[in-house]
Amino acid sequence: xxxxxxxxxxxxxxxxxxxxxxxxxxxxxxxxxxxxxxxxxxxxxxxxxxxxxxxxxxxxxxxxxxxxxxxxxxxxxxxxxxxxxxxxxxxxxxxxxxxxxxxxxxxxxxxxxxxxxxxxxxxxxxxxxxxxxxxxxxxxxxxxxxxxxxxxxxxxxxxxxxxxxxxxxxxxxxxxxxxxxxxxxxxxxxxxxxxxxxxxxxxxxxxxxxxxxxxxxxxxxxxxxxxxxxxxxxxxxxxxxxxxxxxxxxxxxxxxxxxxxxxxxxxxxxxxxxxxxxxxxxxxxxxxxxxxxxxxxxxxxxxxxxxxxxxxxxxxxxxxxxxxxxxxxxxxxxxxxxxxxxxxxxxxxxxxxxxxxxxxxxxxxxxxxxxxx
Length: 373
Hints:
Order of helices and strands: HHEEHEEEEHEEHEHEEHEHHHHHH
Distance between the termini: 26 Å
Structural class: alpha+beta
Strand content: 15-25%
Shape: elongated
Number of strands: 12
């Protein structure tokens, strides 16, 4: 009988215990697939927001605690030869109603980022006016249309346009004139960042090299500020970092529970098969072969639980893709690489959890094991 068949037979001896163990592993892998998959979709939406508008670089403060930049920086940025345009912007999270909060962007009315929006109803806002544009998803959630009034921080704003953005974040956001949000937030002449649109790269220079050169030029011209490429900004902004940290933290807890389940199952299995292992050792099985058998059983539990967990994670993502609050971000499918990553993690969990029971089984003396009752 092959080692694989022996391992399979041992796993199926205690079917209820095996089923419960697989459930624990599956829950951990499902949490990883769903939560980490969702956080990666979150990052992709941020990147889409930059790419759809044509933003190549974000200019922000170097210090973590101070995220404000003076508006006067814009003139210096536009004077650089690589810069086609530099747009001051503010990004904030705001309670629009007791039940609905949303991202609120603020740009100048004539900026290049406005050109990337599709106006579905109404028009663009005008600078200096208490006007607001709503993403189509947010407008639907609020039940607002062009001509209605939306109260922000106690101030009335007229809804002048409904738009569709290049990403889920914009489609679910509100858009204000820059000066109006500066007043609401009492920012004076400060903004959150500048979004920079670069001129086309010269012939013979790759896009990545050109962005890095522009980045170095900006940071040399503006000490105290840093120029962050759009892709890096999408990955490392505070919201994306929070989503990623929460997803991994929750997943690791669930995976740890699954690992403890496998460890308990394998420890009990070795304890119950002490005489059997003694017989195998007496028949000539070496220690490494006993370890190989036990580790194979643990890896099979991890792999099977991983497969079940992938389907569970896909089901969870499917539910998230149907919920109004997350439908625009969550995807009902995952990349193949993410599924492979989940399976590898599941098998590694099985191997690590089965290591101690495998060592204990391999160290059993044939004589002592045969005497065991």
